[in-house]
Amino acid sequence: MNAARFHTMRAYVEGQLLEFWEDPESPFGWDAADLRSYVDGEAWVTLFNAVMLTAARSASQIGS
Fold it and tell me: What span, in angstroms and rounded, lies between the C-alpha atoms of 8 and 33?
């Protein structure tokens, strides 16, 4: 993994500074197609993160 290619973003959430990184060539998503792509690519950590973000959303928001 080449950390130099990742885009660093910062945001405040409820007063806490949050810093996260995203690969501009493979943006993170959590709709049904994204989940399938993580399974197919065996990207288990990314799949877990997407599932956890999806868990609190209703079925109509997921895009199934």
Answer: 24
Query: How far apart (Å, rounded) are the C-alpha atoms in residues 30 and 17?
Result: 23
Residue with tokens 């990742």: 6
Q: Output the pTM of the full model.
A: 0.58
- Give the model confidence (pLDDT) of 43-57 as tens digits: 999 999 889 878 765
**How many CA atoms are closer than 13 Å to the CA of 31, on its beta-carbon side?**
6
Cα 34 from chain centroid (whole Å): 9
Pick the closest to residue 20 from 37, 6, 30 (CA basis).
6
Let me know how long the chain is: 64
